[in-house]
Amino acid sequence: ERERERERMESKQDIENEEEGPPPGWQSIPPPQPPPPPTAVPSEMTQMVCGSCRQLLSYPRGARHVQCSCCQTVNFVLEAHQVGQVKCGSCAVLLMYPYGAQSVRCSSCRFVTEIGVHNRRPPLSVQQGRPPPVPNPVH
């Protein structure tokens, strides 16, 4: 009888052990956690052409300088309202320049075109119907 009692107790322990947790090899999956709130809005990317090697560069909007990964030239970034346009006085290629410049050299024929009232075009932002942004008094 003691043998039967011992077997019954062992069997009872096995049942209790099964009820205590999952079967061997089974892992509980924690409930999904909500994603953390975004700390910042991902930057919108924009592009420009390197002024030295003509490589197309991508950079986050709002950057003031972009270093070319090919030639290492640091390019000054101009917003649309800061760029003037004029046709080359020799080959008629449309040239862009920092608004307010006195002259611009053509990258195709190397001719220097003087910027004046007779050939100045409004900034691209004005041509596209967008007013220039309001200056930030903090900067």
UniProtKB/TrEMBL annotation:
Compartments it resides in: Nucleus
Cellular component aspect of the GO annotation: nucleus
Residues covered by region (Disordered): 1-43
UniProt biased composition (Basic and acidic residues): 1-15
Domain Zinc finger LSD1-type per the UniProt entry, residue ranges: 50-74, 88-112
Principal subcellular localization: nucleus
Keywords: Nucleus
Family matches, as Pfam families: zf-LSD1
Biased composition (Pro residues): 22-40
PANTHER family per record: PROTEIN LOL2, PROTEIN LSD1
NCBIfam families associated with the record: LSD1 (TIGR01053)
The protein's name in its UniProt record: Zinc finger LSD1-type domain-containing protein
Species annotation: Davidia involucrata
